[in-house]
Amino acid sequence: MFPLQNNLLIRFFFFCSLGIIFNTGADSKQPENLLESICPKPEFSEPRRRPGTIPRMQYQDPTCRPNRLSTPRAEDFIDLTPVPDRWRIVESLGYPVNWLDPYNGSNPLKGDRPVFGDDWFISLNAVSSSRLEVRDIPTTRVINNDLMDNKSSFRPENQFLFNQNFSFDTVIYKGDTVFRPPEYKFRFTPVINYNQINNGSIIHEESSFAVQSLYAEKYLRDASANYDFDSIRVGIQPFTSDFRGFLLLDQQLGVRLFGTRANNIFQYNFAWLRRFRKNSQNQNDLTRDLPENDVYLANLYWQDLFKLGFMSQFIVAYNRSREKGTGIIADDSFGGQLATFKENAQHDYDVVYFGYNGDGRFGRINLTTSIYYAVGKESKGIFVDRNTDVRALFGAGEISIDFDWFKPRLSALYASGDDDPFDHTAQGFDGISENPIFAGTNFGFFNRQGLPLLGNTINLKRNNTFFNSMRSQADPGQSNFTNPGINMIGLGVDINVLPELRISLEANQTWFDKTAVIEAVLGKQNIARNIGQDISLTAIYRPFVTQNLILSLSAAALIPGKGYQDIYGDGQIPFSIFSNIILSY
User: Fold this and answer.
1) Which domain covers residue 350, as residue numbers?
2) CATH of the domain at 228
3) Where is this region: Disordered (predicted)?
4) pLDDT by residue (tens digit) across 497-521?
């Protein structure tokens, strides 16, 4: 009996279990896709937008992408083979080696791949710069050529200038240059120049050859795990003392030790430079008869010192000259006449510049600042026969704001002038070999043009500078701290009309800081401080949005102030119109 009852119970529970299973399966619905059980359905409604906020997109789990690739396995990489280096691997992508065309394919002549060895590169560049200029500037007619009695009458003169430069840059370097500078670097840049000046009655032509760069550079060591480094460079090399070139921006013979620290937060330079004389027409270096004028310089760049995005620079520069008794050459292109200013001789001086420079942005505001204080002694002043002390001050600032394609800016500059040329203190500020990129750069009339003062001997100011330094026309380079100084305030705007076209407008008001020096030189009293208003319009066109072809056209004029008229008379408005074409290959 018990076996029969046990069989009945077993059958009863078996059929009950089947009924439960089938009823459960009938009530539940199987998902069409297995991912539906774990992936939420996407919501197609856009998140609500609120003014001043950015909508947040909902994160989707990667497992909810049914088409994603599976994680690779180690056995999938069994067939790996060595591949070429990062320069030659592009050949398999269809970029062939092309020695003649620098713009298509991989060209070894522009550093796309090593030329010899594993990491020796060569880079060749050719640049043609053609400048045409028409200008009306005051020129002098010497009346009496005695020493301090040299007096001149000024007259406006129309001049036509043509200047052509061909430069060929060759760079050979070793290293991959991804995280650190080259281990070795050699550079040679010769320049061939032709220039012509035509004033209607006299045509002066000149051609010359000069060396713009000739140096060797050696990578010394890694200074940290972040590829901070120390390097040294010896030879004729470009150097700029600050962000805008207020004190020194030139190519000079010298030795430079430079590098970085703290993951590139600090950048430093130690340099010794020996000045070259300049050709007065094309500003190329004259490598013969180096003057005994040395510059010892140290500067430190400090990123984000006061504000994130603003770089500070501290600089000390020692300007030493030992040219006492050397004749001042007035103009090497027109007969090499001696300048008839005081004793026709240079003087010795030791001047130290202490400076701070800043460049960067505070939010949308771009800011550039510069301040220098010059202190030292000179063996004999321009107007006195005894030693004089040098105490001079310089300050400049530029503020601008970017409004998309529109960028207005406000500029101000101050260089102290000497209030008494016959005392024992020279207070006129002068740079070393400056070429400031500021307030319209060299497109403005006052910055671009030199203005005469005494015959064809001494200029009130030289080309490509704001300082009224009263140096020789031939630019022997010796600084002069007995000068009238300058004050300037300017308004400008850069307009990006097209990606290829930029138009710049600039208007600067300039004054002499002091006029006592000019009054002593010209023998006039009560010369006004107002130099005038410098107005310029410039268009720069890059048709390929690159540096390979740059077309520039500029027109500038100086509306004379009372001070300018006291010196040069009530003549017509001086102006300059020039065009420049730069081709780079």
Assistant:
1) 120-584
2) 2.40.160.100
3) 41-66
4) 999 999 999 999 999 999 999 998 8
